[in-house]
Amino acid sequence: MTRLARFISPRSIAFIGGNECEIAIRRTKEFNFDGKIYAVHPKREQLAGIATVKSVEEIDGPIDAAFIAVKREPTVDVVRQLRAKGCSGAVIYAAGFAEAGDTALQDQLLAAADGMRLMGPNCYGFVNGLGRVALWPDEHGIRPLERGIAIITQSGNIACNLTFTKRALPLACVFAIGNQADVDMSDMIAALAQDERITAVGLHVEGLKDLPAFARACEAARAARKPIVVLKTGRSEQGAKVAMSHTSSLAGADQLYDALFERHGVVRSTSITAFVETLKFLHFGALAGGRLVSLSCSGGEAALAADLAMGRGVSFPPFDPVTRPKVAATLNEFVAIDNPLDYHTFIWNQEEKLTNTFTAVLSGGFDVAMLILDTPTQPHMDPAAWLKTARAFRQAAQSNKARAAVVATLPECLPLDLADELAQSGIAPMFGLDDALTAFEAAARLGENWARSEKAPELAPANAPGGTDSVLSEIAAKALLKGFGLSVPDGAECNIAEAPQLADRIGYPVTLKVSSAAIAHKTEAGGVALNLKNRDEVAAAAQRMAKLSDKVLVERMVTGAVTELIIGVKRDPQFGLALVVGAGGILTELLKDSAALLLPTSRAEIARALKGLKVWKLVEGFRGKSGDPEAIIAAVEAVATFAQTHRGTLEELDVNPLLVLPKGAVAVDALVRMRKP
Known about the structure:
alpha/beta, Rossmann fold, Dna Ligase, domain 1, 4 domains, seven-stranded mixed β-sheet, 24 helices, 35% helix, 23% strand, flat
């Protein structure tokens, strides 16, 4: 057993401190913890009924874990004493270390630990309902469980709040890990991925200090088929540096986190209620697909479900020819056999008939069946008829061995006792229709991710290059990229006066561009002339550009484009080089139709990103015109390979636009900024 595993599932615990330790001891005793508890205090005779000793050195016996709630300076000595006793790990409750700017004191703390695992500083610790322990100085709502969900957060208050929920969330453990001087998110994910009792892991993330380690831990969880759901703050991040290229305005750090999560099968939630509901649904496992069937006795509810599913990765497919007559046979002629199904109230409060209808519906092989059921919860109301409906649905799910959920459109309309009963039967009790559909979509996407056969590329460390940077000329940038397989137009650079003769040799129509690395966006500066058909037009355009530079780039004009794309590379201080693909040309920043990929990447990952773009519909075919998807993928691969080869010196890159043709894809503009080592 590793030190961390022994620490979070201890058989002996030392509590060092006063009031916070007394609370933590009470929380552990409430679990009926049957291991050994030690209490340490220099003056008090007992803590929560446990006789004290005056120092750690007086403890006679092994120590698996410790909860230290003393001032920050003496904490270092206590850690040193625990390490000498062979303790596996300690929660550091005190604040005032690196998070407050005192890195020297934190270094002393880590040196004193000398490999003993530390959670914190500035943290609440953890509650482990599986091991019946609570190194936790506050209230919590976790009960002893045999299996369930674990949540890891940096915030003690959010951890408390998540344990207080009344949503039938099977929460087995919560870890509030503070400023992560030692034990971090990656360590916890890796440890929990190996615990068969943990069904899913939830993360509340403010920041990640070691992205490659996080990626490796998530891959371990993915290999173990352990769902991870993340609620990451920072989506509204402002002030991302917009550099010379369009690429930097398309992909900020938050989009790169999305790319990291998508690569490694991590589900991202954008609200805390969706976070809870998605975790709860994934407690029962991922989905093979997003084919849903909905049952309700209301046309309004059926329409609401259909509307809320729009734009999500789930659908309500029609009943197949075998299932449709089976369902129809259980209902009268006034019921339309559609999905979502409004079964009306003809069979309401008739448990046998409800069971027959639900059994027929759930035989249809859908990925998940949901019963929309808002149950009376106020004391003067009688919920008996609604409970009959829930029982009928449970019977149908069990007889079909179908994945099922009972969904209340309003969260307060699902009684907790009914929710607990459903969960024990393997039916997910979902609080809120919108969050339920979000959870179903997440489970379907996770199942799709898990079904991929390719190995995820390993994230490289973000090593920032030194030295001064400079922008290459367009012709130099294109020549470099052409060497890696990117298709560029025929062309050459010349003096202003030589432009007509060069155009004659290349062949008309041509494009004329000012040749100056100092002008990043040539169109806005008046440095681009398109579709020039003869010598006179070239000469006139060249003279207009003479005020910008004494040289121009003459290229063969590429015509017949189906659409325009952008391929870019940006350098992020945390992620290193990242690739961006999206709608290009003048629509780049207007549409913001883009996807980010971490480097290195793979052909399969590139293809998925491209197919997720709205503009990809033009490539697939629109009004009789279609593009060359293989040529686009090859172009993106060429840029990615170039970036990987030059990852030590490349600062940013823009290919905009990449003209997509019926056969081929040509980069008609390129910007490359490199650093000299």
